[in-house]
Specification:
By secondary structure, this protein is of the alpha+beta class. The chain has 7 helices and 14 strands. It has helices spanning 51-61, 127-140, 142-147, 170-184, 201-209, 223-232, 252-255; strands spanning 5-13, 19-27, 30-36, 39-46, 71-76, 82-87, 98-99, 107-108, 151-156, 162-167, 192-195, 214-217, 235-238, 246-247. The protein is globular, with a radius of gyration of 19 Å.
């Protein structure tokens, strides 16, 4: 497996007004070509970890595959520069890829989002579950602690079962989680997504594809992602900190009828 970080000699200007040399660990950024049924599709710019999950999850989030049993084989080459996914059926490569707001210039072929189902799970969320989940996410982000250069996302049920992914691109973290979800098939009593990245519309859509009833971030959602969450029945939480957080959509999951948000969701036009 290709290393996910490297050590580099740096020159540091210190608070005392002097210069010092030291060794710093910096995150690796690698181009990885995705081939589907032997045909080149696109190149990821990513952290070279969980590459098989990245490819499978990307195809799932793009609606190319729905179940793990559609995959005949998936293999990353030894140097991590190529990822081959073989399916047991033919697929047509999208003609056009749309650039996303991802940190590494991600791409999607999806023009209209059709989620597998609306998320209207009648499962109430104790505030402590959100605070503990974000604390758990931050505690497990090992690459961030050593390099300070990656995003981290977690899919969990809040009861001890979780999947984690780190990457230079926040969209890549959710593709890796989707791939791990299909390949590992963990038993999750509920599905909650925690992330260090901004909740854009693409992040919300990928979370919806995984069946998440709530998406929780250290930062903020966009207006479009909040409107999509209104329609899909997903609770969006932002600025989750040690003792507080903001709820943007579907606040009924926290205290039943005791809390409500008067949200008049208007039809959204992404380009208006």
């Amino acid at each position: 497996m290709q290393p996910v970080d490297q050590t580099r000699k740096i020159l540091q200007y210190t608070s005392s007004g002097g210069w010092e040399t030291s060794d710093a660990r910096i995150i690796d950024e690698a181009p990885v070509e995705l081939n589907v049924n032997g045909e080149p599709w696109l190149t990821f710019m990513c952290t070279p970890s969980y590459l098989e999950a990245l490819g499978v999850g990307f195809l799932y989030n793009e609606g190319i595959i729905i179940q793990a049993n559609e995959i005949s084989a998936v293999r990353a080459c030894d140097n991590g520069c190529q990822l081959d996914v073989w399916l047991n059926h033919t697929v047509t490569k999208p003609l056009h890829w749309r650039r996303t707001s991802g940190c590494t210039g991600g791409a999607t072929a999806t023009q209209e989002f059709n989620p597998p189902h609306a998320i209207m799970e009648k499962d109430f969320l104790p505030p402590d579950l959100i605070l503990a989940g974000m604390d758990d996410l931050l505690r497990q982000q090992e690459l961030y602690r050593s390099t300070r250069g990656v995003h981290c996302s977690m899919l969990t049920d809040g009861e001890g079962t979780s999947l984690l992914a780190e990457d230079i691109g926040r969209h890549n973290t959710l593709d890796k989680l989707a791939g791990r979800l299909l390949l590992e098939n963990p038993r999750l009593k509920r599905r909650l997504v925690f992330t260090t990245g901004r909740i854009s519309s693409e992040m919300l859509q990928k979370s919806a594809r995984m069946g998440a009833s709530a998406v929780i971030s250290r930062t903020s959602p966009t207006a479009l992602s909040a409107r999509l969450a209104d329609e899909l029945g997903i609770t969006v939480v932002g600025y989750a900190r040690r003792t507080q957080f903001n709820v943007y959509t579907h606040a009924w999951r926290f205290q039943s009828e005791a809390i409500s948000l008067d949200v008049n969701a208007e039809p959204a036009c992404e380009f208006c």
